Amino acid sequence: MKNLYVVANWKENKTQEEATDFLSEFSKNYESRPNVTVIICPQYLVVPAVSDFTKSNNINVAIGVQDISKFDEGAHTGEVSAREASEFSRFAIIGHSERRSQGETNEDVQEKVEMATKVGIEPIVCVVNGNVPIPLGAKTIAYEPIEAIGTGNPDTPENAEKIASLIKSKNSQVQHVLYGGSVTSKNVQSFVQMQNIDGVLVGGASLDPMEFSAIIKQC
Ligand code: PGA
């Protein structure tokens, strides 16, 4: 049986109250499974509350952040370092296309991956196709074609499988390739049943506790 990652990328959504309301609802329907790692990535301000709430209510999910600074620490207004993030999170999404479109470069992504791995955070590096350079040391990649993000038009499972196997064949250190882009409880199975797809990165559909728990059940 494959080990799957199911990642919720909440993006710029949910206050602390909305996040804990989500978790209360979600926990009613969520059954943790040994081969599925569920990773919730809230905005930074809500990360400690999500971490506390899941621990104190025994909700077996991991926490991730949506980005980290490429700098160690110091005079970088608005940034959060990998070491600071590691107080609460085991994972970090790095190089999402929504950040690359604001000027993040492949070199930035490489530096962030190094920062993350140095403190034991596992980077989940997003790429929009099979040609984007995979940073050294990145073991988990999320293939997310731009035209599939937030549009309701996912890639085909066959094409996603082709890209996933290409990424693995060109980069022997890569252990997981996730698919992201308009994943729902209706289509998730068609992706994770593919041989080289090891999970999903979910945006819009992860904001609803019933839908997100349904996605996990379908895996
Ligand atoms: P989506 O977003 O599921 O809303 O398409 C995916 C992502 O951008 O990570």
**Backbone structural class:** alpha/beta
| Shape type | globular
How far is the N terminus from the C terminus? 11 Å
Instruction: Name the average pLDDT.
Output: 97
Cα radius of gyration in angstroms: 16 Å
Sequence of secondary-structure elements = EHEHEHEHHEEHEHEH
Brief descriptors of the model:
8 strands, binds 2-phosphoglycolic acid, globular, alpha/beta
List the helices and strands and how they pair.
Layout: E1 4-9, H1 16-29, E2 36-41, H2 47-56, E3 62-65, H3 82-85, E4 91-94, H4 97-100, H5 106-118, E5 122-127, E6 140-143, H6 157-170, E7 176-180, H7 188-192, E8 199-202, H8 209-218
Parallel strand pairs: 1-2, 1-8, 2-3, 3-4, 4-5, 5-6, 6-7, 7-8
Helix pairs in contact: 1-2, 1-8
Residues 9, 144, 149-150, 180-183, 201-205 line the site of 2-phosphoglycolic acid.
What do these coordinates show?
There is one protein chain. This protein has eight helices and eight strands; from the N terminus they run E-H-E-H-E-H-E-H-H-E-E-H-E-H-E-H. It has helices at 16-29, 47-56, 82-85, 97-100, 106-118, 157-170, 188-192, 209-218, and strands at residues 4-9, 36-41, 62-65, 91-94, 122-127, 140-143, 176-180, 199-202. It has an eight-stranded parallel barrel with strand order 1-2-3-4-5-6-7-8, surrounded by four helices. Strand 1 (4-9), helix 1 and strand 2 (36-41) form a beta-alpha-beta unit. The relative contact order is 0.16. The model has no long low-confidence stretch (mean pLDDT 97). The chain binds 2-phosphoglycolic acid (PGA). The site of 2-phosphoglycolic acid has 13 residues, from strand 8.
